[in-house]
Amino acid sequence: MTIRHLLATALLFVSALAQAQAQPRGLPDRFWGDAWRGWHFYEDPEPEFERLPLPPPKASAATPKTNSPTPTAKAPELVEFERLQKTLEDVRNIAIMRPTEGNVRRYMELESQVVARASTFADVAQRVAWSTPELDPTLQGRPVNAKALEVFEQQQLADRSRSITELGRDHVLIFFFRGDCPYCHAFAPTLEAFQARHGIRIESVSVDGGAMPGFPDARRDNGIATALRVTQVPAVYLAQPFSGKITPIGFGVLSEAQLLERITAVSAPGYDAMLPSATRQVALP
After folding, report:
1. What does DSSP say about strands 235-240 and 245-251: parallel, antiparallel, or unpaired?
2. How many CB atoms lie within 10 A of CB 155?
3. pLDDT, tens digit, for every residue of 245-261?
4. DSSP secondary structure of the chain
5. Mean of pLDDT values over 259-265
6. In whole angstroms, what is the distance from residue 67 CA to residue 185 CA?
7. Domain boundaries, the chain
């Protein structure tokens, strides 16, 4: 071997060694990376790792199927009613937008059919009420018959008078007036008769110090009118002296029937909860 051949072999060896050092660590040595072996060198490739089959996906828990409620079929009467209602609305709208004789006539004919059905319903409902007392509206509350209304009012008057007589055991009516007030003078006889008929005592208070016929024992206002903010007379209040509870009954000239009705309503249970601002607590003299 000549010196030239030795030098060429040495250069190849050095070049292969440098490439081997430059190759990243952790990578397998391939036969094509070994230049010193030569291009004609053959080496079987390393076997690749066998890919293991992936496990089958786990079956998720079956979501319980909720049985959707089966829609109930509408009654045929409801279907017919909705169809008639829709048809009537459409025919009416057409007649409004295009009021020709034919369109208006068609709407009026259809409307007459609907009115006839409603009239039949009203007749049947009336006959059902006649034969079923608890469904007859004329027997509930205030009667409509004149004779029955007279009896009803008499019964109400007696019941209210009885309740006010019982109320008068621990309640009084306070009558605020002025001596120069013509309405107070017109209202005084009604209150005087009311006291005699129903047995509830009336305490009269003169706001201006004037006198009032029928109430000779009237007291001069000692500040109670200011405490109750009485700005208009005549005024009537229902008072319970031992508790100081005072509730307004009304202002101006009232009839006996109005007094009965209002006193009964004010003294009924639950009135304070319905209108809490009306009742006051004032120390009575």
Report:
1. antiparallel
2. 10
3. 899 999 999 999 899 88
4. --HHHHHHHHHHHHHHHHHHHHSPTTSPPPGGG-GGG-TT---PPPPPPPPPPPPPPPPPPPPPPP-PPPPPPPPHHHHHHHHHHHHHHHHHHHHHHS--HHHHHHHHHHHHHHHHHHHHHHHHHHHHHHH-GGG-GGGSSS--SHHHHHHHHHHHHHHHHHHHHHHTTT-EEEEEE-TT-HHHHHHHHHHHHHHHHH---EEEEESSS---TT-TTPEEP-SHHHHTT--SSSEEEEEETTTTEEEEEEES---HHHHHHHHHHHTSTTHHHHSTTT-EE----
5. 89
6. 80
7. 76-128, 147-281
Per-residue pLDDT of 165-194, as tens digits, reads: 888 888 999 999 999 999 999 999 999 999
- For 85, half-sphere exposure in the C-beta direction (CA atoms, 13 angstrom radius) is 7
Q: 4 to each of 1, 7, 9, 10, 255, how far by Cα in Å?
A: 8, 5, 9, 10, 148
Vertex 15: Cα angle to 10 and 17 (nearest 5): 95
Look at 92 and 278; give whichever has higher pLDDT: 92
**Fold for domain 147-281?**
Glutaredoxin (3.40.30)
pLDDT (tens digit per residue) in 128-157: 988 898 888 878 887 778 888 888 888 888
